[in-house]
Amino acid sequence: MRLGGSTVMLAILLGVVPALAQDSPGVIPAPKQSTETAKAVRKHSKPKIAAPKIAAPRAAARRATTPKIAAPVTVVAKTAAIQVDTATTESTTDASTGLSDSERLKIQSALLWSGDYTGSIGGEDPFLSAVKNFQKRAKTKVTGILTPTERTNLLTAAKSHEDEYGWTIVTDPSTGVRLGLPAKLVTQVREAARGTRYSSAHGEVQIETFRIKTAELKPAALFDQEKKEPSTRKVESSVLRDDSFFITGMQGLKKFSVRAYARDGEIRGFTLLFDQMMETIVEPVTAAMVSAFAPFPEHSSPFAAMAKSVEYGNGLIVSDRGHIITDRKLAAGCQVIVAEGIGDADRVADDKDGGLALLRVYGPHKVSPLVLSATTFNKGNVTLVGIPDPKEQNGARKLTEIKARLAENNAIELRQPVPMAGFSGAAAVDAQGQFLGMMQTQNFVLASTASVAPPVRLVTVAAIRDFLAAHDVAPATDGSDPKTAVVRIICVRN
User: Fold this and answer.
1) Between the CA of residue 150 and those of 112, 139, 247, 322, what are the distances in Å?
2) Which of 45, 50, 146, 185 lies in the 20 to 30 Å Cα band around 4?
3) pTM score of the predicted model
4) Regarding the domain delimited by 310-492, which CATH topology (the fold level of the hierarchy) does it fall under?
C-alpha cells in the first residue's frame, strides 16, 4: 500500500539507520513512527500544488523514465531487524567477493542510493548485509555475492539516478561529515555559521551541515535549542539519546528534519529544509541521503567544492627567492593572492596534470625554504602540517598537525575524521621529520561513483622537483624544519 507523501517522508527520516554503521559508533536505530505521529503529519499535510520550476531532476517529475531493474521499488528497511555493530570496520580489500576497491566503491554507492546499505545485520560486514538486502528485494537467491546480472541491474539503476540528480557522495570540508548530495538539485554551496549550506537556486531545498564542540554546547542543550529555534518551528517528532538526537516537523511552510551525533568532544549533524511543494522532488533522494550520512566517517570521499569569494589554503616555500608551491585549484581564478605574513604573490605557472601551482613573492623577505632531499620513502605513518581555515581556529593561523597513513597510489588515509577546510597544500612529513611532499584534496566530479584519484593524495617530492626544474627554479639546498616552510595562502576572487 502506498502511504501519503508526508507519512512516507517522516518514516524515511525516522526509520533509516545511517550508512556504514561502523563509521558512526553509538548510533541507535530510531523507533518506528507512532500512530499519533502519523496523525499529526496528516493533519499538517497540505493539498499538493505544482512545484516551482527550478533545476529539478527529470526523474522527480517523470518517475516512469527511470529504467526498471529486476527489483521492486525501494522500501525502507525495518529497523527492528538491524543491530549496529560498532566493532565492524571495512577492509580495504575484499577477498570474499573478489571485488577491487573501485568496484566495491561503485556498488557501495549504488546500495546507498537504493536504501539497502542500512548497517550491519547480526554483526556481519555492512556491505554484505546491503547486498543481501538488495537480493531480498529483487527476490533472487540471497548469497551476499552479486551475480553479473544483479550487479548490472544495480549499477544501471544507480547510473540513472546519478544522471538525473547528480547524486554523489562527498566529504564536507567544513565539518568532516560524509553525506550524499543530489548535486543537480542543490547547486549552490556556501559557508554557514557552523558548517556548509547546500541549496537550490532560490532556497526551496536546503541541506546544512554543522559541527559544534561539546564544551560549547552539550547534545541535550542543542536538542532543546533546535526544537525552539527558529520560533516558527513546530516539532512533530523528536528523540534524544545520550549520543544522538533527531527532530522533524514544520518550519513555517517548510518541512524540516535535524540529525545530530556526538563523539570525541564534538556534535556533528545536518539539517534538511524544503518547501512542501517540493516533496515529490525531494522524497526520492531522502532515503539515500540519510543512508549515506556518516558524521564520523573512517574513509574519506572526494571533497565538496566550495564557491568562495575568499578561499584559504597552504603553500610551501621552495626557494630563498620567494617561490612557493601550492594546490593548483586554490590558486585558480584569483584576483589577488596573498602569502600571509610575506606579501602579495604572483601566479607564475601551473601543472594541470600534477595539480601544482607556482607562486612568487617579490622583494626581500626572510623565508625558510624546504629542502627537497627525499628520494625514496615507504608507505606508513605520516603527519600533515598546515594551517586550517580561520574559522577552525577562531581567526588564528596556528600550525596544525593531522596524523595519517600513506597508502597505495600515494593515497593519504586520515587517522581520524577531521575537517579539512583550508588544509590543502599542507606539507607531509615522515616520522623523522623528512619532507615527503604536498597534500592535496580532491573535489568530487558530478555523478561519479568511482574516484579517479584518492580524496586526499600526496604530490611527491619527485613531482615537485620536476615541476620546479621545468620552470627553472633551483630548490633550496639548505633549510630547516619543513614546518617552517608552511605559509597560509589567501585567494580573493570576484
Assistant:
1) 16, 11, 36, 57
2) 185
3) 0.66
4) Thrombin, subunit H (2.40.10)
